Amino acid sequence: MGWPENTKDLETFYPTTALVTAYDIIFFWVSRMIMAGLEFTGKAPFHDIYIHGLVRDKQGRKMSKSLGNGIDPLDIIDQYGSDALKFTLSYLAAQGQDVLVDNDSFKMGSRFCNKVWNASRYILGNLEGRNLIPVKDSDLNELDKWIFTALNAAAKNAREALDGYRYNDAASTVYEFFWNNFCDWYVEATKLSFWHGDDHEKDRAVSVLLNVLEESLRLLHPFIPFVTEEIYSKLPLAEIIENRKKAGEQKVMSNETYSDLLVTAPYPEFTATRENAEITARFAALQDLIRSVRGLRNECGVNPADKINLAVLIEKGSAAEVCREKVEMIQLLAGLSKVEFVDAKPTKSIGTVGVGFEAFIILDENINKEQLLLHFQKDLEKDQKDAERTEAKLKGKFAEHAPAEVVQAERDKLAETKRRIEKLGTYIEALK
Question: Between β-strands 336-341 and 308-314, what pairing exists: parallel, antiparallel or unpaired?
């Protein structure tokens, strides 16, 4: 940069913003850089020092040629792609911890990249025969407002994490938003608009989907730049921007008019007008019911493809009242044939409890009772044996000599097993 002369480059680039380093060379190199900079220029060479962990093998050993346990990044790129490499390391790079990886660790990043690609392909596939239209805030339904609230929270949390050098928190935030909120809930629920809506509703739904996808790609870009850039290039961006201009200034829908490469696009920012605590609470109650039903189905060994009937008892005045308004969405996302709201537990049913509701799978012709009974009896027998072993363990010398926290963990395990035994007993009784 021209030192010791006071050149333009030196003035521009010294001091720099941040130094990124592992903790093992702080005193060997970093402290000497600071001392030398102060000695010869009167300024520290950087403002921030980001100290990250070391990348080690799965056994916690440093990677070295002598051990032969190193991982060549180029091999990972050839196998999974550079975005999978970058995202996986970002996701695992928790502050204060070393990163333990092997080749299989990068499958997680690869799966996420595939999820982003496939979800985008599905949305772009729905453009056939559709007309993109200007969408105002007044055109948004409750589901749309919820996803914009979730996107807003993700943008805020990701920015705060990046500013604080918490790269794993930022990666976790965008992962949770895109995979869970956007794909598993929003995209799935919008299928109702494409299945049952008229042409205008289908045009509106796909226009909103594209707006959310465009902003989501900007959110994801620092973590998976190549995949998102490729998808971004396939968006009808000029039409999206034109419709935003036609809709005018909005408080929930994006007003961004950038239309160049994604790499230089503005990062999504938190917008207070997108916040909607009421809708967030209502949708959380809806998700609670659907997750509970999915968990009960899994617990009962019901095939995910089988349509079953459900009875729901709602506590009056609770947030779960929203479920009465979203029957079609519950049927779609929980794999149900029919939802009925009741005032008491049906006689032949198996139930689960959530905040403000009780949900019951009806044991009718849609359920193979004999197969279900065998499933429960097998689980009950296993749990009873586990409980006997744990009780014997706690009565022996283990409880006297093991650390208190380990003993407590075994007691908690026993209590949970007994709760499961009691629940299985009620299930079996309902089937008889």
Answer: parallel
Task: Check whether residue 160 and residue 283 sit in a common domain.
Answer: no
Q: What is the CATH number of the domain that holds 159?
A: 1.10.730.10
pLDDT in tens, 285-304: 999 999 999 988 887 778 88
Looking at the structure, do residues 302 and 347 belong to the same domain, yes or no?
A: yes
135-167 pLDDT, tens digit per residue, is 999 999 999 999 999 999 999 999 999 999 999
Mean pLDDT of the chain: 91
Contact by Cβ (8 Å): 312, 343: no
pLDDT in tens, 59-69: 889 888 888 88
Q: What does 299-336 look like in DSSP terms, one character per residue?
A: HHT--TTS-EEEEEEEPTTSGGGGGGG-HHHHHHHHTE
Task: Please tell me the predicted confidence (pLDDT) of residue 151.
Answer: 97
Number of domains in the chain: 4
Answer yes or no: do 242 and 147 share one domain.
yes
- Are 288 and 354 in contact by the 8 Å Cβ rule? The answer is yes
pLDDT at 245 over 90: yes
> Which residues are registered as beta bridge partners of 56?
62, 100
**Same domain for 242 and 117?**
yes
Quick one: 192 and 71 in the same domain?
no
- Residue 20 CA neighbour count, 13 Å, CB half: 7
Q: Dihedrals φ, ψ of 255, to 5°?
A: -105, 5
Say which DSSP state 202 is in.
Answer: H
- Indicate if 170 and 264 belong to the same structural domain: yes
In a domain, 379, yes or no: yes
User: Is the Cβ–Cβ distance between 190 and 331 less than 8 Å?
Assistant: no
pTM: 0.84
What's 120's DSSP letter? H
CB-side exposure of 304: number of CA atoms within 13 Å? 4
What is the enclosing helix (H) or strand (E) of 20?
Answer: strand 16-22
CATH number, residue 80:
3.40.50.620
Q: Which domain, by its residues, includes 209? A: 109-275
pLDDT confidence tier of residue 83, bands split at 50, 70 and 90 = very high
